[in-house]
Every structure is written in structure tokens, then in C-alpha cells.
């Protein structure tokens, strides 16, 4: 059995196409988590899916945590709302047997600037977390996981925004769970990309989140619980989101 979880922050333009394709490709549970301000819920309600609506901004990581916890199946596929892979590649990911399956993306349509930033980010992650050097990619919007294993590390999932993927992968790695990487063609949607529209803010937010994650897995973890840190984090999230 399989459940598909889709975080959907203001995805009214893309989520309909994705749900239509998924319903044609396979018959399985789909969970959509919305934490935005557009008409995404109205679009989603026209499909036989489970919809969770949050009045508060959850971030990508927060939305995925809600979706994973509410998925009914033992295996959970998390998927970006723009459905960036073809059917054959999606089925290839689903067919793998590991605690966590991540994708190595062969980029299709990504501008050179974004490709350079992506490659630089991969290098930076490996510098911060050397045990992840065997992996080639971290931010692909397609991941398959064992739900029980995911729930076992939920308290270590401290990142709510785009760096959630690295947080998830490293948490699985730290527990000694089996991780497998699968190469897929990855279709980049530049026109409706939320990242490209506020690239400078995204870069800064992801770097700060990377530092936070490194501190969490260090002897200085208690710093993250201080009032000063919490106030600074709230201010930065308000500015950078």
C-alpha cells in the first residue's frame, strides 16, 4: 500500500494538473496539505483526496510532517505539487526497497544560475554533514519512505522550510536506516517557481537553516532552546518567508 503526500502552498495553478495525472497513473491515497492563501483547496476538493488545511504557515517541512502523520499506508511518497517527474520515473522510485528512497536529478529546463546554485548547495551540505557524501542530491521533490521509520525520527525534524529534505535525509542516516538513490529525469518549472521569484531570501534562509541543523547535531544543541534564539528565528522567518 502507498500514500502520496503533497505540500501545497498557493498551488492553485499547478495542483489540478498534478492530481489529474496521478489519478490516471495509479489508484492510491493522496494527502494534500495546504497552508497558503489562494484557491488551492477549491481545486483539490474536485478530486478524491484527503485535504488538510492549516490557517497557520507551516512551511514545506511542517506541511510534510502533517501529511506523513496522517497517511494511512506503510509506504509514503512525498511529492512536489508540480509533479516534476514522468510516470516511468515515479514508478521506478516506488519499486525500490529501502527505508528512504531519494532521487538524483537529471535536470531538464533549469537555468544555468539555478544549476550553479544547486551544485554549490550540494557541496555545502557535504561539508556540513560529511556522512552524506555518498549522495548526489538532496532537494529533489520526490522521496519514498517507510512511515514507521519516518515517525521514529519525527522529533529530529526541526526544519520547517526548504531545508527539510536535508534534515529528513540526515535523520534517517543518523539512525542507520537504509537510504537508496535513484536517478530520474527532473522537469524544472521556472515559470511558476516560487524559489526563483525570491532567490536571495531563499538562499539566506537555507543557509541559516543548514547552520541550525548542524548546531542541533552538536554539543551546542541547547542554544536552539534559548529565548534569544527563538526570537531571532521568529523574526528571520517573518522577513525571509
Please provide a written account of the structure:
The protein is an alpha/beta fold and about 240 residues long. It has one domain (about 1-190): Spore Coat Polysaccharide Biosynthesis Protein SpsA, Chain A, CATH 3.90.550.10. It has helices at about 15-25, 40-45, 60-70, 85-95, 110-130, 145-150, 165-175, 195, 200-215, 225-240; strands at about 1-10, 30-35, 50-55, 75-80, 100-110, 140-145, 180-185. It has a seven-stranded mixed β-sheet, sandwiched between helices. Strand 2 (about 30-35), helix 2 (about 40-45) and strand 3 form a beta-alpha-beta unit. The chain starts with a strand and ends with a helix. About 35% of the residues are buried.
